[in-house]
Amino acid sequence: MIELTKIPPCFFPRKWTHTYLYPNIKQPYLLLELCSYHGAVNCFKFLRTKFNSEITIECLELSFIGGNPEIMNECLKKFEPNENCMKYAIISHNIDFVAFLMNEYGIEVNLEDCIKYKNLQAFYIYLDKTNDIDHCFANSLSFHDQNLCKYLFSHGVDMYSKNLNSETVFVYAIRISKKEIIELLLLHGFDINTKNISGETALHLASKIHNTELIKYLVLHGSDVNSKDNDNKTPLHYLSKYDDIEITKFLILHGADVNAKDNKNRSILHYAAEYEEIGYGGESYFYCFPEDKCKEILELLISHGAEVDAKDNEGKSILLCATEHKCKEKIEVLISHGADMNTKDNEGKSIIHYAIEKRDQKIIRYLISVGIDIDVRDRENKTGLHYAVKDNNKEVIELLISHGSDINAKDNDSKTSLHLAVENNNIEIIEFLISHGSDINAKDNDSKTSLHLAVENNNIEIIEFLVSHGSDINAKDNDSKTSLHLAVENNNIEIIEFLVSHGSDINAKDESGQAPLYLAIVKNLQEITYFLIENGADVNSKENNYGDTALHYTVFNCHIECLALLILGGANVNAKDDLFGNTPLHYAVLFDDHKIADILLSVEVKADIDAKNMNGQTSLHLAVAKNNLRMVDFLIDHGADLNSRDNENKTPLHYATHLNNRVMVDELIRNGADVNAKDKENKTPLHYAAQLYNNEIVDTLISYDADLNSIDCKGIPAIRYLNRFKFAKKKKKDWLENEYEYECRKSLI
């Protein structure tokens, strides 16, 4: 403690939590509170004088556990005691503290605390103070003192009063096997069939703890052998799992219903067919009584009319339960008494499925010997072989196949056992299945072969084995993907190299028209892209429904490295897609990608800068349409035709005018754009500028000698558009050389 106080105040923890010295406490405590808890008076004084530590209500409460009077008195100077103080006094078993709090401060003793912390003296004080004899009687057996219970009973208590767990003394006496109390209460007319909060009678409890002496005593004194608890279980449900022939027979002879069912529709025979489950070290195990008893209990119940094929709510028959609990002896008894070997649960699982799941070869061999259908299907159409393969159980697989199991049976997903073995990456089982006739090219509902699955799992060992044994390397799934497509999607160069070297179609296309090269480009897989190109991938193939080549897609995704690989591999840099007729350069301009555009227009590559798409647009048209002045300058610097016409005979200058971009208009004209170029309607940029009432562009065009008298297809000169849109007369005069010329032209209009 002294060492702790040497810690600088800025680092000193205000409260000590469970992460420090007290791992089980739920709330943090101050050091002063811990001194109170331990009764460490010297440390308490030291903290008070040296650090002026403040006394809290917790200090007072905990002092009744620590038990140091000096600390307690100091705390009482500041706080009044509360109920927690009484609780801690009861916990400490210091009766003087309990009496002190009750007499000096009027704090009541809590019966629940007396019972919980087994403080008999405090219990007596509570009884003396409250005279609550009924509740004291109901809880008296908590102290395991029969004399106390008898004493209280002798003072005329309510026999049916309940303890803190809502149980009567009678029920609690059964639980802890206090026969004297049981006899005492029954002698005084206690109802032997009274139930606790769980609906259990004394006979239920005696059966649960397998107290045969009490069971017989209760039955002989009128206990209802068919009484049901809240789970609809009778005493025989609980007793049957113990395989106790004598006591089971005793209950049956006294009228126990052997076909009674609980809330889960489980009969007595269901419980009898199972092993007793016991816990040890956090694990559960099944314990089996001696073999003869295992059989006898079932035979006893069946001989008294127990329904051998009864099913619970999950559709489990007694035979399925016995198999699930791996009890071969009980299975034999049930089958010998006519149990349905073809029974299935709600999931369609049969006895052979259960036996395989439990990996019990003895049961499997026995079932085969009595003629079980080893290829029976569950609800998912899985056979026992499917189960064994999924469980990687080679011994059972060998056993089933040696007895004729269908090695190529398919489940609802059309998966064979080989598919499942590949999914499990189990090469040993794969080798065994193929050596025994498994169809190596069988397809599931997705049309995937085992090779597809092996590639998806990136298992090169299995892939090599399958290919060496005749797997179709170019088989396609429902998406028309080959194994090579999947290997590219998985970015596995080792598998790709193997598949290509063994004849995989490098240009096979999937449902979307995509070859493996296209997928590599999409993912920017440069090593794979290089390998595929080097091994003959068609770099100019149109890869999807839009007619894009791989080069188009490198531009879409800005994959410069793959772009270089494709160009070096002979990709057509002027290839046009089918949707718009755009070249890669068109898209580089649309995406404002100067790096890619620069590569495409380099001296080495020489992409056609004036190539036109379906609308007759060059890259310059598109750059202007995007209002991208920087790209426009870039294209002009690389020699783009400023007067190229689209399908409507429009030049880039027309586009710039339409967009009201005066700066762009000025830039194009300064670099040689024809100011009087006409489109299909014979309109010049000036026509459009006037129609758009853009004074600035009109001024710019006229300043570059735009023809005011140029006539469009309707015979209208540009100057009439200026008049139509009501330009100021003075402004018009400024455009003309003199008033006379203006008047002459006005008369013409």
Query: Oligomerization state of this entry?
Result: single chain
Q: Could you say what the CATH topology of the domain at 620-749 is called?
A: Serine Threonine Protein Phosphatase 5, Tetratricopeptide repeat
Measured as a percent range, the helix fraction is 40-55%
Can you identify the CATH class of the domain at 620-749? Mainly Alpha
Shape type: flat
Low-confidence stretches: 5-14, 16-20, 277-290, 727-733, 735-749
The CATH superfamily of the domain at 620-749 is Ankyrin repeat-containing domain
Query: Would you tell me the structural class of the helices and strands?
Result: mainly alpha
Protein name: DUF3447 domain-containing protein
ANK repeats: 165-197, 198-230, 231-263, 314-346, 347-379, 380-412, 413-445, 446-478, 479-511, 512-544, 546-578, 580-612, 615-647, 648-680, 681-713
Keywords: ANK repeat, Repeat
Pfam families: Ank, Ank_2, DUF3447
